[in-house]
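agent> step 3/5: call structure_predict on target 'Probable nicotinate-nucleotide pyrophosphorylase [carboxylating]' (Rhizomicrobium palustre).
agent> reason: downstream docking stage needs a structural representation; sequence fetched in step 2, passing through unchanged.
tool.input:
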Amino acid sequence: MPANLRPPPALLIEPLVRRALEEDLGRAGDLTSDLILPPGQQGMAALVARREGVISGLQVAALAFGLVDSALSVRQEAQDGDKVPAGTRLMVLEGAARSLLTGERVALNFVGHLSGVATATRALVDAVAGTKARIVCTRKTTPGLRVLEKYAVRCGGGFNHRFGLDDAIMIKDNHIAAAGGITAAVERARAGIGHMLKIEVEVDTLTQLEEALSLGIDTILLDNMPPAMLREAVALNNGRATLEASGNVTLSTVRAIAESGVDYISSGALTHSVANLDVALDF
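tool.output (status=ok):
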């Protein structure tokens, strides 16, 4: 695990894992494993990456197995943030065979999804290597899983945008329309915030950008601007505000976006549209 990468505290993730297990176990528990396997049967299983990718969620998987049976032995053989080839053994578990099979699906659901997020993030990060642009996520996360998905983005080498509505002021197009303009929205926001909060304003034209710059905005989101317009925006900005590009961010477009000179590139697809990494439990 990279030195600056820390998983979320167990206090935050345990309720998520517990709810997932409760959903799977229902009212009667694991009928199949309980009926087929005798209580004393022991087993060993390995969590294996079937495809190449960047790993995230191993602590979550370990927690899932531990909540099913605290007597299980869990040994990690990889770390979150590792890019691994297909066939890599990520974790080895030993203990009651029933418990291993009962915890299997929830553990795999978390690791597969979070590793998918980390893998997609790393692809964009690698695509912009050599530019100053940083890849960041958005609030377009799976309800209830934001803390884990944003952690997975960091596992992939990306950075986090705001975590929620309460940790930054972000004035978007609908706020501007409802307030009657950028200036009115910014003035109202500044009248009520403390000195620690920054303001970001979304713009989709160079005219709006000029208005936002005249107000001394901290960060400006350039929404759905093609690379040529982004370059104009960077020149117009001339280092005054932090610039974030968003919209139509794909592996085929992200390099051109980064080469425009923006500081950040945000992508909602990192958390709302990624494919799971194929991870399995081999018994």
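agent> step 4/5: record observation. DSSP finds eleven helices and twelve strands in the chain.
agent> proceeding.
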